[in-house]
Amino acid sequence: MRVLIxxxxxxxxETIAAGLRQEGMAIDLALDGRQAxxxxxxxxxxxxxxxxxxxxxxxxxxCRALIEHGCRARILMLTASSTVADxxxxxxxxxxxxxxxxxxxxELVARxxxxxxxxxxxxxxxxxxxxxxxxxxxxxxxxxxxxLDLSPKEMAVLELLLxxxxxxxxxxxxxxxxxxxxxDPFTNTVKVTISRLRRKLGDPPVIETxxxxxxxx
Length: 217
Fold this sequence. Notes:
- InterPro entries: CheY-like_superfamily (IPR011006), OmpR/PhoB-type_DNA-bd (IPR001867), Sig_transdc_resp-reg_C-effctor (IPR016032), Sig_transdc_resp-reg_receiver (IPR001789), WalR-like (IPR039420), WH-like_DNA-bd_sf (IPR036388).
- Residues 2-116 form the Response regulatory domain.
- Residues 124-217 bind DNA.
- It holds the Pfam family Response_reg.
- The structure is a single chain.
- With 217 residues, the chain is of the alpha/beta class.
- The chain has helices at 10-22, 33-42, 59-68, 84-92, 105-116, 152-163, 171-178, 189-201, and strands at residues 2-6, 26-30, 47-51, 74-79, 97-100, 127-129, 132-135, 140-143, 146-147, 208-210, 214-216.
- Strand 10 and strand 11 (214-216) form a beta hairpin.
- It is elongated and about 55 Å long.
- The chain starts with a strand and ends with a strand.
């Protein structure tokens, strides 16, 4: 899952990002509204966590612009205000959810995962294929009754392949949606991760390589 965190408080944004990466998410940061709009046009995010009080372009305008331009990401608005009027305003702009600062990190994670399940297309809470199952919320994957010991990136790649429901997912899409923008686009990290994942999944093989196209389950 790829998430954009938009907050002009760098220390807070980096703290949130570090915690979400521990949850297996790929995280990008934007420190103002203009950068957020630029990022959202380049990458296909699952969820955008958007602070309302932003410099350059206000969070309300960012939200409105994203909706008007058909952004598929789910938007979670953050604000220091807890008034009902502010929550109503934020949701009326097109935000999918609203969270008041300060917040419990566990609640932020739960809300992001809940929004991701409502993405296009919707992703079920447990992904399955034959004797293979994966629960993104619990960070667990099983095959044939055996729990798999997967790294966060292996879990993210497996989640994307299972969510594709048999469709081919290119290496470029895996790189874009499971890693962040600090990753070298010419790296072979996807190939290496797929290789490790195949070994851990065991036999019979479930990940198919489609030559010159990508991978599928």
